[in-house]
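Need a sequence for this fold. Nothing fancy.
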């Protein structure tokens, strides 16, 4: 039987196909999808993150680990959905301008869709104007921004300003998140909500759209 440890180790080595198979085996063995995600996949990626920081691994290794992570998440997707939820509204989601990290953003999407939200995924390196234009054209109640770099967090403030400039402040809420983002930063830039992880982002989005 595939163990969480094996999933984590193979992810760290970037063995995408093996990770995919091991995740499926773990699911079949009855290990909860949330545990596989948090301890196996996210656990493995956080080891890669520490090695990256210490210059023990470099961008190519991180990219192949990220690909393995995405393969694993793909297997888990149906098991992380909550089918009991009714459609609650529309969200436009993206990683902010200058930032190419998309794994956390993709998890937010998966969790939000799992809660019955319609998510328009704008991808990475999204300009503030693109968030606002999409929210207007697609009638989104929420703009959700992800940032992984301290240098790109500031782009979230630009999104809030762009929403204000478009006169949408009372119509569209701005949610923010990502590793360097904090509650205090959220208050500082006047965004509507910060959540620390993808599952709580989905819960918060449902709550905001209900009010
Ligand atoms: Co980059 N990277 N990276 N990287 N990378 C970090 C973020 C870093 C912390 C690594 C390190 O030094 N330890 C560091 C940032 C330092 C800082 O700013 N403080 C860093 C750096 C420096 C860089 C480059 C500048 C490196 C370089 O080129 N010299 C460069 C920047 C490129 C750019 O964006 N312009 C770069 C590049 C890359 C890769 C392309 C190689 C790759 C990205 C691949 C991809 O995303 N497709 C990559 C990766 C993979 C990482 C690490 C290793 C892992 C990130 C990840 O995917 N984590 C990362 C180190 C680390 O985080 N430990 C690192 C797993 C993911 C599920 O977590 O995205 O945090 P995360 O999402 C979480 C929460 O944050 C939250 O939910 C998720 C959990 O449920 N969340 C939200 C995320 N978005 C949310 C939105 C919400 C709510 C919650 O509401 C809307």
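Here you go.
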């Amino acid at each position: 039987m595939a163990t969480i440890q094996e999933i984590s180790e193979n992810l760290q080595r970037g063995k995408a196909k093996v990770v995919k198979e091991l995740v499926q085996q773990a699911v079949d063995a009855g290990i909860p999808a949330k545990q596989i995600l948090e301890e196996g996949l996210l656990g493995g990626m956080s080891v890669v993150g520490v090695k990256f920081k210490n210059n023990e691994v470099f961008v190519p290794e991180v990219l192949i680990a990220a690909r393995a992570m995405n393969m694993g998440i793909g297997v888990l997707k149906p098991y992380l959905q909550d089918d009991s939820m009714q459609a609650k509204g529309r969200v436009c989601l993206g990683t902010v301008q200058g930032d190419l990290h998309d794994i956390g953003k993709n998890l937010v999407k998966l969790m939000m869709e799992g809660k019955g939200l319609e998510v328009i995924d704008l991808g990475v390196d999204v300009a503030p104007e693109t968030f606002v234009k999409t929210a207007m054209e697609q009638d989104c109640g929420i703009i959700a921004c992800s940032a992984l770099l301290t240098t790109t967090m500031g782009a979230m403030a630009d999104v809030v300003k762009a929403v204000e400039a478009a006169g949408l402040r009372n119509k569209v809420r701005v949610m923010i998140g990502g590793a360097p983002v904090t509650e205090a930063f959220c208050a500082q830039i006047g965004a509507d909500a910060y959540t620390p992880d993808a599952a709580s982002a989905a819960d918060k989005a449902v709550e905001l759209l209900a009010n």
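For context: The pocket of CO-5-methoxybenzimidazolylcobamide is lined by residues 42, 45-46, 48-49, 52-53, 59, 62-63, 66, 98-105, 107-108, 144-146, 148-151, 175-180, 195, 197-198, 201 (CB under 6 Å).
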